[in-house]
Amino acid sequence: MPAPPSNAAKFEPPLLGLLRSASGRFALFFTAVFALAAAAAAVVLWWNTAGALDRQVEAAIRADVHALMERRREGGIPALVSAIEDRLALDVEEETLYLLRAADGSRLAGNLSTWPVVGGGSDSGWLSIVLERDGGATEARLLRVDLGDGFRMLVGRDVAEKLELRSLLSEGIAWAASASAALAVLGAWALRRSLERRLSPIYRTAALIGAGDLSPRVPLSERGDEFDKLGTTMNQMLDRIAHLMEGVRGVSDAIAHDLRTPIARARAKLEEALVSARDEETLRAAVERGIADLDGIDRVFRAVLRIAEVEAGARRAAFAQADLAPMLTDMAELYGAAAEARDQLLEVEVPEALPLVGDLDLLGQAVANLLDNALKFTPAGGRVRLSARLAGGVIELSVADDGPGMAEADRRRAGERFFRADSARSTPGSGLGLSLVRAVAALHGGHVLLADTRPGAEMPGLTVTLRLPTVAPG
What we know:
Elements: H1 7-10, H2 14-20, H3 22-48, H4 50-90, E1 96-101, E2 107-110, E3 126-133, E4 136-148, E5 151-158, H5 160-210, H6 226-258, H7 260-276, H8 280-311, E6 320-323, H9 324-341, E7 345-349, E8 355-358, H10 360-377, E9 383-391, E10 394-400, H11 408-413, H12 433-443, E11 447-451, E12 463-469
Parallel strand pairs: 7-9
Antiparallel strand pairs: 1-2, 1-5, 3-4, 4-5, 6-8, 9-10, 10-12, 11-12
């Protein structure tokens, strides 16, 4: 007895399961986009606030240095000392920092007691230092200026409050980032749940279809969104499959019903000839009749295969730019002789040119089937009319006869394989002619219309019209 699978074999890391799921990947993508957007917002906020504070401080220091240098050029070192003292007197908030030192190291002006020591052996340029002021430590941003002749000056600002503001801003951004991450995860979870909830009916329907039940359909909401469009497309596909399967069953039943008689008849004739044939000539005649019956059966199978080939679209590769008018003229000449032999009249009204994109061989077979049927059901002395016209990018090709016509109920079924109206049971045929015509029309993006030739008459006749676009669908 095989051992049951271990728990280790069943275990799958949650992240791996999430990545295998399309909804999980969408959710992770949503999270990543949300996180990137939050990060970009944080960078912009930092640049426009904390960065702006630093740039503002440095700009104020440079402006102060520039003004002090102007005073020095005007009045020398004494004027510079006076300007520093004036600025310190006006600084109520005590944010400004100054130190003016002579060549011998003595302090000439300012509120800094000593020149700061800079690590690394450099004391030039911008300095960021920690100062002891009012019994506490504070941070300062200073700019060192060499005045020449050994004189040096420091100009700066106390930035402790600005650094505290920047710290508060950083803390706020951190909290906002945490909240954004939580919202991103929550949104990703909600997105995944929503996708799975909308797709689950499709999963269930597909599973039932795969199990062999073609009746289920995808339930649709009233939103009309992409999932409803997908469900509608699937339902249309399933309806088409069900219709084709029904057609296959109908064809199978029809073949079994309609071909059983000629096969049985051919077999009976051959058996009778085998038993009762008196001479070789009688046996030969029986064999020839059997062969003729089998040839008829073969023609039926060929017609069924041709219709299946057309409906599958396999002949679309043979589409080319062509002119329908010469083919119709040739058909009229061919069937005109057959009409004369039956004491019938074939009238033709075809324009000089009927350009279209299609398969002329298939269209020729369709027209031949229509003319065959029209001549078959038109009595002696009657007329058959073949006409065509081009209007609005559509070719209308009609074959009208003076026969008994077709009832409205029979017209709705005309074109089904092996269907024959009650009035046509006594005439030879297999019931595949209109099926081929409809299949050829559908292959070219057109359709077939049936109507009475003379409505209300005792012999209303039948007019079959093919409406074919000049440019077939891709």
